[in-house]
């Protein structure tokens, strides 16, 4: 089962492995706040990267994905809005939540590819520079479960202990949410002002075995409608980008009709809920339909915590075969492809319904020289799980795709929906945008 795999996480892909078998209590009662509470999401602009910097980042991203995919009823139903921040030129998108009594706010990456909540603890001794910490003594409701947890990420590790406390977001709260408080973090895993990660996949992926924050809200009827949704901004192709830029919108309990147009096309997820897994049925590149693997090799995890799109070798080869002048990358760029920068690459993907287009700006990851660019699709090598005989998903579809659609993750029936972005949503892209 995919649930036997370690959980996917942030824009630097994230794997989780428990330190032994852990049994934890289920989250307690849920309460709902005022409808329409808003928390802004911010986008952080990237530092100037050299070609070598990009190569090292790309190598870590590919290795990370290979590893990663290698209570009471609420008083009333409600809705919540969290405005996102775009970090490091569309590398990740984060928002805020609050933990404890009194509540303390933390910035966390929103990740539909993992299921655990992780925050840095005040006892952190490594990899925690210049980020906000969880201080156990400051919360009158925090409980230390004294159960160790170790999380392995593609780009690093985190270790700590399981805690339990009130967690709030956008006016909605869970009283006894279990989460990981990290006291050891690999260098570069969390970058200021981000202090952690909020997993938005299903409980079967949770290394803590705890019910995820979102799933407790959805299953208890805390939301007006059993959905959460994303609209993500694009700054990858912009100049003079600031360190933080508006990242779009995350909603709980409803969909924001001002951010999309037409109908939301829902597709039921594949298999037992774990990842948000869809079957990729077709793809066109430069207007031509390419051959794709079928069966389980067509399964795609829809992952807001992943920057790019990873897929099987044969499919990635077929994509770049349609682009004259493209070539396989070497060295740190192994698994990626280069192509002429003056070529506008148009890719569209279908999951059994409409075909969704990816902007040429999103297809271009970075420029290596005056003429050669690197594509945002790369070869994802899946390996057998250590605890099962099954492979991870053959495709991981991240923000390269999701910036081009309004995406909805539905609790019941378990499904993912996409819709065309509205003019209002598209106007939020780029410097000095609406």
From TrEMBL:
Q: In terms of domain of life, where is this protein from? A: Eukaryota
UniProt cross-references to PROSITE patterns, sorted A to Z: PEPTIDASE_A1
Tell me which residues this entry annotates as catalytic: 111, 303
InterPro entries noted in UniProt = Aspartic_peptidase_A1 (IPR001461), Pepsin-like_dom (IPR034164), PEPTIDASE_A1 (IPR033121), Peptidase_aspartic_dom_sf (IPR021109)
Q: Which residues form the signal peptide?
A: 1-23
Quote the CDD domains the UniProt record gives.
pepsin_like
Indicate yes or no for the key word Hydrolase.
yes
Give residue ranges for domain Peptidase A1.
93-419
Name of the protein this chain belongs to: Peptidase A1 domain-containing protein
Native source organism of the sequence: Scleroderma citrinum Foug A
């Amino acid at each position: 089962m995919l649930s036997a795999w370690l959980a996917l996480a942030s824009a630097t892909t994230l794997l989780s492995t428990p330190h032994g078998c852990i049994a934890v209590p289920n989250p307690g009662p849920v309460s709902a706040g005022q409808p329409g509470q808003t928390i802004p999401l911010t986008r952080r602009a990237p530092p100037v990267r050299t070609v070598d910097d990009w190569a090292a980042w790309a190598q870590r991203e590919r290795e990370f994905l290979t590893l990663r995919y290698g209570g009471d009823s609420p008083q009333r139903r409600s809705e919540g809005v969290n405005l996102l921040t775009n970090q490091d030129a569309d590398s990740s998108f984060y928002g805020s939540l609050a933990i404890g009594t009194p509540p303390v706010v933390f910035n966390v990456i929103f990740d539909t590819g993992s299921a655990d909540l992780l925050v840095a603890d005040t006892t952190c001794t490594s990899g925690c520079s210049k980020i906000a910490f969880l201080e156990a003594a400051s919360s009158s409701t925090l409980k230390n479960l004294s159960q160790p947890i170790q999380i392995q990420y593609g780009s690093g590790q985190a270790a700590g202990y399981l805690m339990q406390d009130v967690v709030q977001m956008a006016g909605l709260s869970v009283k006894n949410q279990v989460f990981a408080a990290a006291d050891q973090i690999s260098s570069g895993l969390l970058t200021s002002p981000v202090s952690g990660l909020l997993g938005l996949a299903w409980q079967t992926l949770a290394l803590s075995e705890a019910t995820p924050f979102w799933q407790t809200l959805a299953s208890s009827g805390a939301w007006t409608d059993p959905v959460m949704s994303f609209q993500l901004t694009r700054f990858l192709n912009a100049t003079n980008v600031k360190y933080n830029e508006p990242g779009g919108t995350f909603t709980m309990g409803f969909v924001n009709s001002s951010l999309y147009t037409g109908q939301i096309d829902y597709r039921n997820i594949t298999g037992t809920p774990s990842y948000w897994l869809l079957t990729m049925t077709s793809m066109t590149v430069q207007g031509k339909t390419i051959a794709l693997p079928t069966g389980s090799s067509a399964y795609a995890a829809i992952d807001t915590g992943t920057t790019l799109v990873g897929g099987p070798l044969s499919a990635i080869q077929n994509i770049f075969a349609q682009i004259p002048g493209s070539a396989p990358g070497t060295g740190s760029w192994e698994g990626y492809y280069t192509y002429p920068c003056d070529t506008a690459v148009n890719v569209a993907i279908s999951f059994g319904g409409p075909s969704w287009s990816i902007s040429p700006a999103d297809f271009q990851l970075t420029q290596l020289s005056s003429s050669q660019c690197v594509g945002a699709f790369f070869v994802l090598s899946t390996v057998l799980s250590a605890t099962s005989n099954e492979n991870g998903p053959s495709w991981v579809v991240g923000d390269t795709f999701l910036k081009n659609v309004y995406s909805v993750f539905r609790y019941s029936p378990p499904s993912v929906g996409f819709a065309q972005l509205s003019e209002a949503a598209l106007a939020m892209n780029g410097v000095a945008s609406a």
